Design the sequence.
């Protein structure tokens, strides 16, 4: 028998996939039983408990194994997010784009100013402020889906999330090479920025053209188009990684173009449904592993002020143009609250920051991870409460 | 309320229109629960007529004012459509006609919370959610209550024509139902649907109503979901059998047709015969199932007739009435529809044959609602 088995048993990616799903499911169902917490909170808690800050079951190697699933999950989310950005709506509601710009850049300015005032260097502060601009699409999509929230505020949450992620992705792609220790000359930096920005957009466009041409074969059959989209998303991720482009921007571009440039309506409105749920559970559990709260004890004041100014900036940004969009005060307030969560993309950006520049300010990374951790924990609850408050959520069937 | 409201005197043959409309998402084209916010937005705009909610949260009802001519009615409803379209654009939802949404799932529909709708939902259970279908109601002013009862029964002979002419619900719950009007089968499930009782005197009708009230069958006239009923508080009869057509012009043409028919009936006063109801239900079914191709059974003449031919004959009969009412154009369009046998159900099936997607069919419904007929040429399908 011992010829066939080698101890300790090697944990392969499929084993990890199954285990993560089952543990995540368990956490989600327990969270649901509390009647206050959304399922996401349970997924995150499971990740946190099995991670290095909990029972330390998940090792670094296992996380690398899981990165494949995380990439697919992020790809699906970014594509879906891009599809929420409808230029027609921006044209008809003159308040929407100014609202997105204001809430995004007010958040950037407020967070940057706070960090700068705490004597942190300008570039890391700018990168941290960029990360703070983006709302977590996974959280808002998942909470809305879980409680069947439908209506004007839910839809506005999606388009504003789409826009603030777009701004954050562009700014992050510009700032990141500047922080790169090796790319010292301005020429190298600008070439790098141009390549990553334009390259990602062009790759997104090429993938769209491939998708639209293949749709001639599939016709409007939803099952075939489902496979077409998942294939296009996976291929885009793979290509972006191989070409050292931004996977996030590539997928986002593919989504935006699919929404706005499919003039002949060749593509159907594919709902990723159960597939998205599988990857979402996985994403939340895996990113839960990265949660670190030590910054909250080490840099309490900065973290708290960071959080307060971010919350105020998001809400004020929405309020300023709410009258132009003809929203009520209560709608503006709930919309502002739904934009608070920071999660998977913020974690992804922070990880990328450290990967690009291992000497990046330890203090700042600790602060960012603490802020992300707080908003990862509280964000889904706030979003759920906000959607319930608007009356757009279906009665919770606990 | 224990007694029937007195029949309000109204100018004979005045007309009015109620249309139930669909609110749809502009990405997947399913129904959207937007009525609360949409009504709030509309309440900030001044407009004629009335805009109000219906049983579920994806439904909107528009009511016109009272009109003497179909052209003034058309102007008002077109103005209302302009306001609706502009407001819908700003909040990024679509509006369309049609008797049923092709692929919405009834179990996903949420009841609009008012005392009346909540009590309706409590009483009828899942039927309330299934009631997410969209109809057109036509009001014709009557000089007195007796005329209204007379017209209710005299019109019964012609109601299958209205079913076929307005039919716009071939797809329901994601399938081609093979019916031109699937909406009627939903309404037939209600115990108080059907036709009014054979009563021709208002005094007797009041006695009947009070009995039903005392027995606890109804709480008001609104609880009778008859295909046609007197509406004492307006001084009208209300034809409730039509699907909401895909365009405003067709909806108003149907009102003009009903007005001319009522004028002819009141002028000629054909003798009413209870035998008309011997074949009423089968004719109603056939009109819903086969549309303009249905074969009707005339129990009085004891013969069969193609519904489209019946409409052509009626149009010829109503020509002088339409000239007097200034609605010849509308009557001509009804005549052409019958001759060409092209109702909205046929248009919707044609769209599906070309587009192969019910989502895109709803997209084309929003476009034809916005731009009128010929919109399919303007759009890039």
Sequence:
């Amino acid at each position: 028998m011992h010829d066939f088995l080698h101890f300790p048993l090697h944990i392969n990616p499929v084993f990890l996939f199954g285990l993560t799903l089952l543990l995540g499911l368990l956490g989600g169902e327990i969270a649901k039983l509390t009647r206050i917490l959304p399922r996401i909170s349970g997924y995150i808690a499971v990740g946190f408990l099995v991670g290095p800050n909990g029972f330390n079951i998940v090792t670094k190697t296992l996380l690398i194994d899981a990165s494949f699933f995380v990439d697919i999950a992020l790809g699906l989310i970014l594509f879906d997010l891009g599809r929420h950005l409808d230029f027609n709506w921006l044209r008809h509601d003159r308040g929407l784009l100014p609202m997105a710009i204001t809430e995004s850049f007010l958040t950037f300015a407020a967070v940057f100013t706070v960090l700068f005032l705490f004597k942190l260097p300008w570039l890391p502060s700018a990168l941290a402020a960029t990360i703070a601009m983006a709302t977590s699409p996974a959280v808002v999509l998942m909470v809305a889906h879980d409680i069947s929230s439908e209506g004007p505020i839910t839809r506005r949450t999606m388009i504003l999330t789409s826009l603030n992620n777009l701004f954050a992705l562009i700014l992050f792609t510009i700032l990141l090479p500047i922080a790169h220790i090796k790319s010292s000359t301005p020429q190298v930096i600008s070439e790098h920025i141009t390549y990553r920005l334009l390259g990602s957009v062009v790759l997104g466009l090429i993938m769209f053209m491939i998708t639209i041409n293949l749709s001639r074969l599939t016709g409007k059959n939803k099952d075939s188009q489902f496979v077409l989209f998942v294939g296009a998303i996976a291929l885009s991720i793979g290509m972006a990684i191989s070409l050292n482009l931004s996977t996030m921007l590539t997928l986002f571009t593919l989504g935006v173009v699919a929404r706005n440039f499919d003039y002949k309506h060749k593509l159907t409105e594919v709902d990723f449904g159960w597939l998205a749920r599988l990857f979402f559970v996985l994403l939340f559990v895996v990113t839960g592993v990265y949660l670190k709260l030590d910054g909250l004890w080490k840099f309490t004041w900065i973290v708290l002020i960071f959080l307060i100014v971010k919350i105020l900036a998001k809400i004020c940004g929405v309020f300023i143009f709410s009258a132009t969009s003809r929203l009520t005060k209560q709608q503006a307030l709930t919309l502002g609250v739904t934009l608070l969560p920071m999660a998977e993309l913020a974690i992804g950006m922070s990880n990328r920051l450290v990967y690009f520049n291992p000497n990046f300010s330890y203090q700042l990374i600790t602060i960012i991870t603490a802020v992300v951790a707080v908003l990862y924990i509280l964000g889904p609850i706030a979003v759920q409460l906000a959607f319930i408050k608007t009356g757009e959520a279906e009665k919770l069937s606990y | 309320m224990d007694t029937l409201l007195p029949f309000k005197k109204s100018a004979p043959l005045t007309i009015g229109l109620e249309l139930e409309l669909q609110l749809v998402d502009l990405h997947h084209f399913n129904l959207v629960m937007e009525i609360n916010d949409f009504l709030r937005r509309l309440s900030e705009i001044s407009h004629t007529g009335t805009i109000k909610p219906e049983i579920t949260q994806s439904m909107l009802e528009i009511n016109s004012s009272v009109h003497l001519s179909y052209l003034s009615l058309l102007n008002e409803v077109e103005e209302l459509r302009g306001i609706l379209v502009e407001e819908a654009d700003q909040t990024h939802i679509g509006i369309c006609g049609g008797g049923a949404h092709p692929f919405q799932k009834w179990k996903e529909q949420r009841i609009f919370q008012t005392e009346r709708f909540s009590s309706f939902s409590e009483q009828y259970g899942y039927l309330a959610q299934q009631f997410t279908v969209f109809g057109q109601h036509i009001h014709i002013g009557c000089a007195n209550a007796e005329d209204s009862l007379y017209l209710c029964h005299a019109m019964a002979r012609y109601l299958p024509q209205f079913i076929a002419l307005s039919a716009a619900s071939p797809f329901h719950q994601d399938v081609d139902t093979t019916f031109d009007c699937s909406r009627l089968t939903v309404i037939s499930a209600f115990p108080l649907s059907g036709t009014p009782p054979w009563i021709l005197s208002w005094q007797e009708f009041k006695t009947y109503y009070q009995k039903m009230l005392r027995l606890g069958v109804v709480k008001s006239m609104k609880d009778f979901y008859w295909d046609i009923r007197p509406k004492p508080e307006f001084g009208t009869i209300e034809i409730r059998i039509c699907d909401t057509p895909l365009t405003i012009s067709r909806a108003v043409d149907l009102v003009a047709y009903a007005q001319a028919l009522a004028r002819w009936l009141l002028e000629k006063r054909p003798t009413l015969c209870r035998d008309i109801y011997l074949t009423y239900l089968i004719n109603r079914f056939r009109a819903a199932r086969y549309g303009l191709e249905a074969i009707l059974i005339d129990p009085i003449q004891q013969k069969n007739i193609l519904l489209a031919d019946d409409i052509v004959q009626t149009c010829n009969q109503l020509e002088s009435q339409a000239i007097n009412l200034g609605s010849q154009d509308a009557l001509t369009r009804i005549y052409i529809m019958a001759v060409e046998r092209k109702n909205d159900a046929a248009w919707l099936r044609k769209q599906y044959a070309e587009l192969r997607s019910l989502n895109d069919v709803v997209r084309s419904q929003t476009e034809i609602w916005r731009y009128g007929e010929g919109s399919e040429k303007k759009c890039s399908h």
